[in-house]
Write the structure tokens for this entry.
Amino acid sequence: MIKRIGIVLLLIFCSQELWAQELSFKTVVSKNRLGSNERLRITFSINKQGADNFTPPNFKNFKLLAGPMQATNFSYTNGKRSFEQSYTYTIQPIKKGVFTITSATIEYEGNVIKTNTVKVTVTGAVEIPKDPNDPSYIASQNVHLVAEISNTKPYVGESISVVYKLYVDVNNVSVRNTRELEAPAFNGFWNQNINVNQWEPKMSEFRGKPHRYVVVKKAVLIPQKSGKLTIDPMSIEVAAGVPIGRTDLFGNRMSKNTNLTVTTGRRTVNVKSLPEENKPVNFSGAVGELNFSVTSSKAQLEANESAQIKVEVTGKGNLKLIELPGIETPNGLEKYEPEHKESIRTNLSGLNGKVYDQYTVVPQYKGKYKIPSVSFSYFNLKEKAYKTITTKPIFINAPHGATPSNGDDSVVAKRDVVSSGATIRYISNRTNLKPIGKTKDFLNSNAFYALLALPLLAIPLGIFIGRQKRARDSDVVGNKRRKADRLAKKYLSEAQKQLGNKEPFYIALERALHNYLKAKLQIETSDISKEKIAIILKDKGVDELTISTFIKVLNDSDFARYAPSTDGMMQQEYENAKQVITKIDKQL
């Protein structure tokens, strides 16, 4: 009997030891120093049962790859019982530097508890030990992003192209989805993107092995200065499936999904200066294979009739950057400011088409007018030499109209101002003013009485408007609906402008949905998963149907960029997004 009592007291003592255990809620990271291409595992753990409402920190400067993975652990060692509840995330840095991961929070017995903060140092990319069986390693060896530059040694002003291709060895890996993480920067270049409307897989060889590739981006670049210019890297996140060597019941290969980031790395272009030798005085930077002309729409004009003088450059070159020379007109031929027009096609070979300034000229007198010749200089890339084109003079005949005061119909010359005794007159100190006519007084006029009665008429109108406003203000449901509709139109305005352009439309639609949640919930929704968004909306009182509709619109906008779509489908996606924003705003 005494032995049994001793065992009971021992158990009670151990239980008291357990509950006397000090509360601990802490953050632990797998490493405090890592490369920009490595991953970091971070775990938040608490040693008390009953904690709830865990909130992770904002992983600023990091990309969330996986998590949260929850685990609960009970143990009983040497008469001591322990408990641990943990939340684990996998994150990856998006830039170099020293960053502080802020505290996570959790509620325990009515109190909000915070973890410790953690400092992490992110260095440049490091060499990661290669495990040939690791799916991430296998994917990285079979998926490549390449920037192909047409010419790495151009002249200043010479057009070059850069094509971004994603190569995949389809025998070893499959690509499920992609997302652009970092767009390339073209500092020192004039640049223009060429739309890639649809990704078309093609076969080619890469490093001696057959690969399938798609063109993900194309751009035309024109260097603006000489020297070494750097094209910053483009980065894409790829969701890949790596075969695991087994098949399912239907004989299909089973794969393990993994995410990896592929990048082009920085590329350098060595830009050559244009030669100083034999450079024309009037050279203004035109480069290419160009033609130049000055033409007139008419050679003979009637009185008050106009003609159009066109100064035009055609061909292939840096057309959008060309400064066209002006024309000089003689006295008596009035010249108006030119209208600048362009008709340019952009392709990988550069800019092709024409640019021109169109002047309108009108003769003030009859006579014969001469527009002098115009010279245009450019650097010819084919011959590696400067060329100057000089046009012929243009003659315009105006046989009718007023005769110039000098009587010369062939040329209108400038004349000096000739003073005379009547040029300056003294101010008269006597007046001889007479009334123009009898005017009616405003007092007692019809207008006087109309203005007098206007305030009286405005009173019932003001009462009517006030009643309408009060009725509108009392309509709470209607006001919420109108406010929500205005809010939806505000966030979706950019997507509406891009209707018909598939990829820009879906990018704008996805951005609008994230910006809406960011404004309403004060969170960075682009940094968290769709599951977390659903949890936050549910906590805010949004019903399940509306949440599922919102997530569906997000998913559709993500996947539709890489699938065929029509204008009708885009219009329907726009309407769905508008309706779901309106519903969420009403419920919030």
Notes: Residues 286 and 378 are 5 Å apart (CA to CA).
